[in-house]
Amino acid sequence: MTPPPSQAAAPASSWLRSWKFWSVMGGIAALVALFTFGFTTDPKKVPSPLVGLPASSFQVRQLNGTEQLSLAGLRGKPVLLNFWASWCVACREEAAILQQAHLTYEKERGVLRVIGIAIQDKPEPALAFARKYGKTYFLALDNEQGDIGLAYGLYGVPETFFINAQGIIVCKKIGPVTPEWIRDYAERGKTTCDQS
Amino acid sequence: MINDIGYVFLVAAMAVSLYGVFVPHLGVVRNNWNLVRSAQFATILNLAFVAAASAVLWRAFVVSDFSVRFVWETSSRDLPLAYKLAAFWGGMDGSLLFWELVLAGFSAAVAYGYQRSNREIIPYVIAVLNVVHVFLLFLLLTWSNPLAIQSPVPLDGRGLNPLLQHPAMAAHPPLLYLGYVGFSIPFAFAMASLIRGKLDNDWVTTTRRWTLFSWYALTVGQMLGGQWAYEELGWGGYWGWDPVENAALMPWLTGTAFLHSVILQEKLNMMKVWNMTLIILTFGLSVLGTFIVRSGVLNSVHAFAQSEIGPAFLIFLGLMLTGAFLLLFRRMALLESRHTAETLASKETTFLLNNLLFVGIAFTVFLGTVFPLVAEALRGTKLSIQAPFFNTITAPLGIALLALLGVCTLIAWRHSSLPHLARNFRVPAAAGAVAAAGSALLGVRSGAALTVFGIAGFTATVLLLDFARAVRVRARQEEISLPAALVSTVTRNPQRYGGLVIHLGMVALFIGLAGNYFKQEHSFTLSRNQPVSVGGYQLVYKGMKVEQVANATLHGAEIEVYRNNRLVDTIKPARSFYPTQPDPLNEVAIHRTLAEDLYVVLASENAGDTVTVKVNINPLVMVAWLAFPLFTLGAGIAIWYRPRRLTETALDSRWSYA
Are A64 and A23 members of one domain? Predict the structure, then answer.
């Protein structure tokens, strides 16, 4: 019986010097490196392309009052622009946080304007929601076509934008805002955005 | 207590797997066949241990033992029994154990089944398989222990994700695993052949049926996944080029290429290096697929079972690929075959083209899947690759494959005479033209769809004529009736005619896929008893019904479907509320005919007794599902293929190490 031809390997030098071998090894290394990099990023985090760009202006009439407001007219003071809806559960969570920001930064110190735009909503339920959660800051409805929501590329509500005194969008927050997030921008003058 | 015993079984499985990695090599070095036999036995014992550990987990599911954390995470008391059993693979840890169970079963079958053949390489086949066992068991014993205990014991479980409570979901993951794991058998044989330097075609012939079986499981697994997405996710389609879907498609593509190219090695001794490469890629992509599904490095809608084992999978993948390609390059000089296709017009050429197309599609899918990560690594930009990219590139390649399938069947091995070929082309080409023209007359306006129908008509005619001719010849030669000749034709060459049936299934699948070129999507609000017309149907909303189905409360909108003023169906798209879930799920309602599906999703219930619905008219979906029975029949026939004689040493039972 013939012994198994297990020693019949090619001379090591030949294949170790072939470019094919090293390209395959390089490919494997690149693949592993790529996915290792993948561990360091979260694919669920998608930045808004609007960050760093001028906030698009809009004109609205106040829901809980009679004021007419144009966003462009607020240039000179930072704006906290919040999108919400009366049917939105997470908006209840952040209602008190926004109201507190309004009291502290807008009424007391006058360093910020807080605006809430309700999307896909009707005046009566929106007003009822505002009364129930004690919102006293400027509230308005988006129009029937939802033009403002489209201009700001909303995924859903709540979403909140911080717009600086020059009218540039500094950061966007998807989901309920936190007091820390607001404080970072309104008080500490943060200019970067950890996007979520 | 009993769960601790399950863990002990896993430890025991680890011990015998480690034995199975090292002892076969010792047997070869010491020339002692008994050592090899002991490793075969250890591999069979491994199945017993893993099966026992799995039984312990299944028991915990059945009796709702929430002291087991995994059971608490994926089950609840109100879950129907069938889903309790299927919740085994409803999360990461359990699916890993399930993978190990399937692999243990297959490995035991290999250890038991090849005691007398393939003696030269079988020690290393056993060793390679056990390396995979050690990796999986290592994960199961450390980060991913499905039998981990928690205290205090919760009163009820968190419940299986309602999206997964669907019959197709009970069968889809196990079938994918059967496919993934199945490909590790030819992979192990390939690696063992490389290690031993036994570079003839025995590994190919021996594993031919494993490959077929794995291909079938992977195919059906994917079709069931598509069916689940279609019925459960409610976006109106069955394939969305999501990374997780792509992850299962890539090994299927290279595996299908492998399935074809090994025929060239068997028949003509060609493509030896290529076949090794393909099986390494197929197994590698199976591991990569699992990695993508579990690690969460790519964004997906199917991220049902993510966990922390991503890095471990990546290390395993890197080592596995490096080791496999090192082995391959070491033997490269011996593998390279001098045989090439003789003329351009030969069956060999069509096989080469087939492989180019399959691998081309696989590469496209791979690129589209990982490109967002590449872009972020190199440019820091986030982007996502959507269906248009994949469709633009893969659709023409796929249509080329469909045409090639017809051409390949017509053309002869070695070389074809062109006049003969031209004569054989006439009838199928005419049939294709008729199919395209007929579809146009029936109102199909999409050029792409008409192209597919034309080519499908051509290829289907080629296949059916080929079969009819073979049956007629057989009937004349053996002087038997046509039905008897049909049976005799198929049983004499099951590989060829099983393949033919599968190819007919492929034609059906393509026809069904082409339906996507002319589907319609509408959305409107229905008031009670006021008919609305859509795509030849009239829909009449009759009112809301609330009912309890198993563990869910269904809010269904009863809608009557009329066609030509005749009531054809009453459907009930619904939103279902599960006690364990905060948000309702959509229950799609589908009125199916062979020509098209009327697919209705309840978007919202409005005030004033109106409902808003999303309606899709999806043509030819049933034709695509028709591929399923054809694949099953074809694979069932082809699996009866008996390999041709192995080489002397492979069969020689006297050959021993003693």
Answer: no
Query: ∠ CA A79-A84-A90 to the nearest 5 degrees?
Result: 115
Is domain B519-621 in CATH 1.10.10, yes or no?
no
- Whether residue A161 sits in one domain with residue A90: yes
The verdict on ipTM greater than 0.95 is no
How far is C-alpha A109 from the chain's CA centre? 26
B161 vs B144: CA distance, rounded Å? 19
Residue A105 lies in a domain: yes
Q: What gap in Å lies between CA A24 and CA A21, rounded to an integer?
A: 5
Domain range for A29 is 11-41
pLDDT digits (tens, 9 = 90+) for B78-126: 889 999 999 998 888 898 999 999 999 999 999 999 888 888 899 999 9
Q: How far apart, in Å, are the Cα atoms of B63 and each of A40, B80, B190?
A: 40, 12, 43
> What are the chain A neighbours of B297 within 8 Å (beta carbons)?
35, 38-39, 41, 43
**Number of domains, chain A:** 2
d(CA B608, CA B612): 12
Statement to judge: residues A94 and A37 lie in one domain: no
* A75 and A142, same domain (yes or no): yes
- Whether A7 contacts chain B with CB within 8 A: yes
Rounded to an integer, what distance in angstroms lies between the CA atom of residue B420 and that of residue B489? Answer: 24
User: What is the secondary structure of B169-188 as a DSSP string?
Assistant: HHHHHHHHHHHHHHHHHHHH
B365/B336 Cα distance (integer angstroms): 29
Q: Identify the band that residue B12 occupies on the pLDDT scale cut at 50, 70 and 90.
A: very high
The pTM score is 0.83
Mutation choice for A interface testing from B194, B367, B376 by most A CBs within 10 A? B376
Residue by residue, DSSP assigns B122-159 as HHHHHHHHHHHHHHHHHHHHTTT-TT-B-SSPPSS---
Among B residues 394-453, those touching chain A with beta carbons less than 8 Å apart: none
| A124 part of contact set with chain B, CB < 8 Å | no
- Is residue A132 domain-shared with residue A164, that is, in the same domain? yes
Cα B392 from chain centroid (whole Å): 23
With 90 as the cut, is the pLDDT of residue B26 above it? Answer: yes
How many C-beta atoms surround the C-beta of residue B90 within 10 A? 26
What residue spans define the domains of chain B? Answer: 1-165, 191-339+350-392, 393-517+623-634, 519-621
SS3 of residue B272 by DSSP: helix
Q: What is the DSSP string of B397-457?
A: HHHHHHHHHHHHHHSPSS---HHHHHHHHHHHHHHHHHHHHHHHHTT---HHHHHHHHHHH
d(CA B384, CA B372): 6
